[in-house]
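Notebook entry, structure prediction.
Reason for the run: the old model in the group folder had no record of what sequence produced it. Starting over properly, with the input documented here first.
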Amino acid sequence: MSSDRSWVQALVDCPGAQGLYTYEIPFDLIVRVGDILSVPFGAQQVGAIALVVDSDEKSLRSIGLDIEKIRKIDAVVSLGFFPAHYWTLLSQVAKYYQTPLMQVVRAALPPGLLSRSQRRLKLRSDQNHNLNSNLAVSLEAQKVLDLLSESKTGDYSWRFLQQKVKGLGKIVQELVRSGLVDSYLQPPQTVRPKQQQAATLVGEVDDQLNGRHREILECLKRMGGEAWVSDLLVQTKSSSSVLKTLEKKGFVVLQSREVLRQEIHTVKSDLPKVLTEFQVSVVRSIQDHKSCATILLHGVTGSGKTEVYLQAIAPLLMAGKSALVLVPEIGLTPQLTDRFRARFGDRVRVYHSALSEGERYDTWRQMLKLEPQVVIGTRSAIFAPLGNLGLIVLDEEHDSSFKQDQPAPCYHARTVARWRSQLEDCPLLLGSATPSLESWSAPEIKYLSLPTRVHDRPQPQIEVVDMRLELKEGNRSIFSRSLRDEIAEMKEKGNQGILFIHRRGHSSHVSCRSCGYVMECPNCDVSLSYHHTHATAAELLRCHYCGYTQLQPKICPVCSSIYFKHFGSGTQRVTQELAQEFPELKFLRFDSDTTRTKGAHRSLLDRFSRGDADLLVGTQMLTKGLDLPQVTLVGIVAADGLLHLQDFRSAERACQTLLQVAGRSGRGDDPGRVILQTYSPDHPVIDAVVAQDYGAFARSELETRNVLGYPPIGWVILIRLSSPEAMEVQAAANQVAQRLQMVAQGRYEVLGPSPAMVLRVAQRYRWQILLKGETNGPTSTPVELHLEELRSVCGPGVSLTIDVDPVNLM
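New structure, fully documented this time:
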């Protein structure tokens, strides 16, 4: 008899316990991978996810499990809440990035889905057990139906019903099989489905009704026989009491229904654009790849990559398939979403971390439906549970925002997308004007090119201004004479422009002019940045690492001097200088300080598109694919902050950023100009930007990486250690490095340990160790480091994380 028994490994996530646990499957239940289960855990019932369904009794005994003591799962709460192959992907992420599976699951799923959820039963809205007398149910089942029908919402928690009815498990199975009730897992209180009252016309409009009642019913009929009560009341200018009267007379049914929480913005429908010769060739090539393949689309700025995405996706939707489109920044989603919704309507969904928990939960459930749809999201959307995928797109694939630095897992969405492409057997399209060197140099990636802008528009002219000469000739402003002239001309012609600064805030640091004391963060080894708030006229000092904020003191804490000097330029200072030099100019700031609130990205870009400002002043958010056709001028206020960072990727990142921001200019009918201000005009990156030849730069940079053995030629793993105690973390770093040296066996080189570039952040001291080795393959794990073993060397007070393929070594 035992040979007919089967078990399931379920992932449990509840307070005090996280991990895989084995349960027996009752004979009368069918469990599939991806089902949400209700399982006993201690004295409570908790939610769990079915990962592995197994009927091998020997394998359970071989690991020391007494199968007679294994508890049975209670019920299947929700069928197929996750695709079956989803766990293959998550397991691959856990293995490659050397992270516990539970941490990967938490990164992938909507927040708190299991740990704060409860099981509930709900009377199905399309069933009425009083009208189904021919459907025989047991007396106990009838009692449950009566309880549910007495509830205003038609549902109760599992725990409440257990107190009222004995043997609830089998009764519920009977009712679910009969189609009378639904069993579901209710998300946390803050993420329950949103309800709204709806009115449904159920009777013919009677001539005997008074004129007001007949008018309301006729309006409801014109609205298709169903409408939200709030909309109907507005249309008919009536009250809810009138509708309740009509309900009592049997003409309408009023009931609560779920309304999905999602961002809705009205956009005009759009027809496909006429493609250029290059675009036609690229779209055909993409459509020729029906199965797994990775394609790099290298298109210069303004070459029409988004239109290529749209026309490559359109036939997939017609064939019943879905598409996943990833962008690096939340700020990019409004523009891209509007373009896609104008083309594909309500089949477009958005998924990113700035959505509320309710919006993410609702969108997740919509993605589980096998309807053809397009999901647009940021890094975490790579885990979206879309079925029947026909294409995955990474727009601006070079962007470092696709890599998660912390918390673990430190995954790169581009790498995970390649694995998912293989599992789904669909193409992966990587798009960029400045591709990452990893994608550029990979021989297995197919290369496609869009070498010209649409409508044969010219690339913007780039003028380099040597700020050393400006200073020698008496110009002490942060704006060169060329930039000032171009701004004045832009204003005169009625055009718009962008000013790019690589740093937000007013000044990089504040120091006393008398004694030289620099205002520093008490929690981190960095200076505080100066911020001026116009609303309260407050002068704030803020740490951009831990968020610590204080008022700027009136006197120096060391020498009591009242004289302070603000060094460096951020977006805030640039806007202040603009107001002084160009009082007639209107401008908007576009950085992380001004886009903190929900919808701020869209609001600022909409205002700029309407012409509410002449200049958009911002940080690197401006470089990420924004399409602003009215912009004819781009001013790069200080390129030097990007050129001299202590990171082997600094040249690549600087070239990408400068070319991208330059590419915002001249995308409309008028030609574009770029003024690039620098104190290092002879830097190789500046030469590459002026030439606007990214291919030549990439080839040169790859030669340098080849000599040094850095990615993509080799691989690196960064081990980060931190602790509130300086000596403790230093000792742990030395011990971990010694352990790694002992087991290296020539497979890799150990560099360090060394203190992090910023030693102390948020009152924790940080050290790091860099491992460097030869590449084994594009997605093979460089070397397995045994995380728990390394942590055992550190001691309890030291945190250790592993970052495979880091993009930030600072």
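Summary: The two ends are 61 Å apart (CA to CA).
The old model has been moved to the deprecated folder.
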